[in-house]
Write a structure and sequence with these properties.
HTH-type_TetR-like_transc_reg, 0% strand, elongated, mainly alpha
């Protein structure tokens, strides 16, 4: 069972995704998390603290994902592309947290902190890909492919008919082998 703190963060994510940062109040988060407002304030003393908790959650999930990228049996690029694609199953709820933080990035109050956190998440993934790929441009290219797939995941856009992630990976392997050799 999730802790009260996690329920609050889960509720905050949901409200951000469904209604945007401007519409989210502490009362609404407490109600959605099934905790009293005092219970919410025990964990997060303000709306800024709540946003900070969400950013911490994304950084934690990103660090775990970067470690998974580095230790993936089939390699960093394959892991990054597969888990970025629709249905790829990024572990630990990172997709929802990332999407919620994107909603915060548009907010004038917590927007800069959210953008800084998103940049750190991006840097984590790039560094993990660089561990596998010697060429920084190829690592960035692999990241951009994964990011494009991740955008499809976030927006619910399916892959083109008749094309799959394994087809993409096969072509990328050949391309990367030619450029990373």
């Amino acid at each position: 069972m999730a802790s009260a703190r996690d329920r609050v963060l889960d509720a905050y994510e949901t409200l951000l995704i469904e209604h945007g940062a401007a519409a989210v109040t502490l009362d609404a988060v407490a109600a959605a998390a099934s905790v009293s407002k005092g219970g919410l304030l025990y964990h997060f003393a303000s709306k800024d603290a709540l946003a900070g908790g969400l950013l911490d959650r994304l950084r934690e999930r990103s660090a775990a994902d970067a470690q998974a990228i580095r230790t993936a049996p089939d390699g960093a690029v394959a892991y990054y592309v597969r888990t970025s694609a629709p249905g790829g199953g990024v572990q630990g709820g990172m997709t929802r947290t990332y999407l919620a933080v994107l909603r915060l990035a548009d907010n004038t109050v917590s927007g800069q902190a959210a953008r800084d956190t998103l940049a750190a998440v991006d840097a984590d993934a790039y560094a993990a890909l660089r561990d596998e790929l010697d060429d920084p441009l190829l690592a960035w290219l692999a990241q951009l492919v994964g990011d494009g797939l991740y955008l499809r995941t976030l927006t619910g856009t399916p892959l083109p008919s008749g094309l799959g992630v394994e087809d993409l990976l096969e072509r990328m392997r050949r391309f990367l082998a030619a450029g990373n050799g």
